[in-house]
User: Fold these one by one.
Assistant:
Number 1:
Amino acid sequence: MTNERQTLTLPVGPLHVALEEPVYYKARIEGERVRSLSLVMGYVHRGMEALAGKRNLFQNVVLTERVCSLCSNSHPLAYCTAVENLADIAVPPRAQYLRCLAEEVKRIASHLFNVGIMAHVIGYKSLFMHVMQVRETMQDIKETVYGNRMDVAANCIGGVKCDLDGELATFIRAGLDKLKKELDEIIRIYRHDKMIRGRTVGVGQISPLDVVRLGLVGPVARGSGLPVDVRRDSPYAAYPELDFPVITEDGCDVHARAMVRLREARESIAMVERILDKLPAGATTAPLPPIPAGEAVARIEAPRGELFYYLRTDESDKPLRLKWRVPSYMNWEALPVMMKDCAVADISLIVNSIDPCVSCTER
Amino acid sequence: MLGIFKILLRNLRQGPATHPFPFAEAHTPPRFRGRVTMLPEKCVGCGVCAHVCPGEAIRLQPSLDNTGYSFSIWHNSCALCGSCRHFCPTGAISLTNDWHLSHRQSEKYTTAEHHLVPYLRCAGCGEPIRMLPPELAARIYAHKPPGVENLGELMKLCPACRRLEILKREAIAAANA
């Protein structure tokens, strides 16, 4: 027997780490502790950026919507914004508000899904089931207003495809009133429950310095106290007119990130109500001019953080290049830092805390 | 801890939250984006639906005997995005809320909707022309060309004969004035 501790490589994944998405982690472990981590990715690369160059600008709205189901409104919104920036299209105010509405509805559903999965990873199945059932309110709203539970197909170049009438607005309000009470209950449980706190407080720490160094975005950055939010930092659509706070937590751990998501979902409910109050009348689409040759970018705050689109066109109706950088791309880099010296049992919990989106990152 | 037990007890009292599908009908909202359908009497054959369709599920093709054009919607290629409905200038395409699209492998090539939209014959030269519905004609000729009382008459002509006819009537109207 020597005093030297044995290290070995533990393969985690590529399937069923936290979400049912494939990433292969190679964890160097020493006893129960993870000493270092490397990732192997690329299992769900579908060549979507190349595919975008083969389709015309209209078809790409739907293609980008299929990149990922949880941010399936943010992708087409960012893409449409890039086209509008390029061709100087002024989106009518009503369409701007309706875009924010779809974004916030999707954000609530996405955040609730993530915190629900967190309970599932901990093994708190009853809470997981309850959160998913509460989330059904949002799914019903999406299905009733937009016609699908995940792909809302709200955006088109120059505006929105889906308008809202008084009856649907009442339906949304009734759903949100119900959701508000249930969400407040859930927030209390996540904040105070002993089991949740025992598994998540102090786990997966990342300092604000590391957040800046790695360029992390979204709830991961905000969970470490950095108020980074594209909706505030570089406003788009109707966000400048919607008064909202950027929610941060100082815990820097898995628990703080979950609390940021829950509180943001609560804030998004208030924002949806504000949108319904202020919704201006008027057209929902702008007339389409010819799309000139050139390049443009757009930035959107997706549920996971900053989503960035780059578009280059010639005068044809097919883009020469469409490139997107998704929030999970930066947030993956946080995992080796967060998992330094964590317990093997916490790997999936920490992976889930960055709300990874493999299908977005690998497209 | 007490909080979650209170919730669980309440959920237990409320009973199942799921629908007993397929033993009972599942609730489907009227706006649900389901199977795409098309009204041939409203179609002008502009093909914008086929242009915007991301899955190339819509196909327009002149028929072999040149009496009309066929219009097909392949439900298996359809992404149910609703772009065709959004861009259709006459409202000919719509999405039903029927989501029962699963079928046997043997029905793979019949899970489609086919229409033959017939051409009209130009009253002037006899050329085959595509029908222009009155609402769309009223939008195109909103400025009311002088000397034209009845747009319906004009719509029976092919575009070339129509231009000639309008010019003729404009000249007569100008001479009369």
Number 2:
Amino acid sequence: MTFLLGQSMTGGYGAADILHDCTIGVERGEIAVVVGPNGAGKSTAMKAIFGMLTLREGSVTMDGEDITALAPQERVRKGMGFVPQTGNVFPSMSVQENLEMGAFIREDDIAQTMEQVFELFPILKEKRRQPAGELSGGQRQQVAVGRALMTRPSVLMLDEPTAGVSPIVMDELFDRIIEIARTGIAILMVEQNAKQALNIADKGYVLVQGRNRYTDTGATLLADPEVRRAFLGG
Amino acid sequence: MEALNALALLGNYLIVPGVTYGCQLALGALGITLIYGILRFSNFAHGETMAFGTMVVILATWGLQSLGVSLGPLPTALLALPVGILAAIGLLLLTDRYVYRFYRRQRSTPVIYLIASIGVMFIYNGLIRFIIGPNDQQFSDGSRFIIKAREFKQMTGLNEGLAIKTTQGITVIVTIILVIALFWFLNRTRAGKSMRAYSDNEDLALLSGIDPDRVVMIAWIITAALATIAGTLYGLDKSFKPFTYLQILLPIFAAAIVGGLGSPVGAIAGGFVIAFSEIAVTFAWRKVFGYMGYETDSLMQLLSTDYKFAVSFAILVIVLLVRPTGLFAGKSF
């Protein structure tokens, strides 16, 4: 039984479906990466799993529980953390306040979780009084990931976390994401930088036009000449 | 000595009234900026909200006065403030429930809200005239002055007097207390931070589990309190006449926009910029120049006081042309 599973998802925003019988799943402690060409429905698949899109068919289950009908906010309470691609921080609020707002639904003491986030991203501790909007792109992504971690989620979903950051910062972010997965959190990630992302993936999904095209371990997909030629640029 | 006389003259006609007026505008602009930050529209009914709250305060003041209650040297209206605030909160929450909530559910654009708020303005307008009438109402009591001009002259031996009215003193003190309380709320409390988060990034705030209805409700409650207090202070200072609260809408909006819509610090700074410009431009500088050793027959007045509203309008236009996000970079239109 897969820990988080979007099974045979079909649906879209309007009359036309974007996803067709699309299945994506991830286990605790694993990294699953969704790649594919532009307009393949990668982000849409992610949004469907998070409940920002109503499914016509298919289901989403987490830890064996059917959560298909839950709103995104309720899924956050169930243990999902979501980092949107854009607008993922509160720009005028300080780094620390961003983390506090991430933990808004928690009633208990959040100091320990914040300390863990600061351990993971030491630069945030240094800049904790600075408004998030004044940070560099890479640092802002760290705030966004840190914010999502504040609810102590069992699943972390990242929509193109490395969009617009330099290759060095990207490697750094991927290292942190591996670290997060090692703590037992399931990570589901949509990525443009397919090669690098599949490199760290336990499981890879190649989507084309809203359908599963290839599904395998990250290493196998990277080694598959057909996948390489069609989707990874040789 | 001459310089001191000039200073006393400036203090009496420019600084004291400027600070007082600036406080009143700042409190009004804070209400505008809060609603803009949270509900994302320019609330044209804000002036009438001030008038409504003040009207209830006046009615309650009369009630207290007829019961023989008084605060000694302070105006009885201070005691009646909570009644006015509660009434204004009730009015705003009812308006939100029956007017703005509809548009929120429709996800209307800001301009629709703005038009709706003009309608609300006319309704409040009628309601106020229906209850208290369009005329001037006096409700200030207690002692009139903290320092009288004559006492100041005797004390210092200067030719120029410096008078500070009780209402001016109260305005400044109340504003300082309110601003400290507001910033403490916005920066230190969970509810306040959730309001800033909602104003910053609505989608992410929803994702974080912040309840939008609660944020909107708190915004209206704070706005009602600020509007009532600002209106009452203005009324105590200048006497209450419903029409003046429609007129004051322009300088208040100018203050909020000059400071940067959505920025509370900006609203306060904007209030003082507008107040001092308005007074400085319409002030007759002749005597000040006289003390500085420059005698002239001209009044040295840039604009007649009849045109004081033109000042805020001119500043508004300049700011929108040169720096549309305002001094403290709020949200631009």
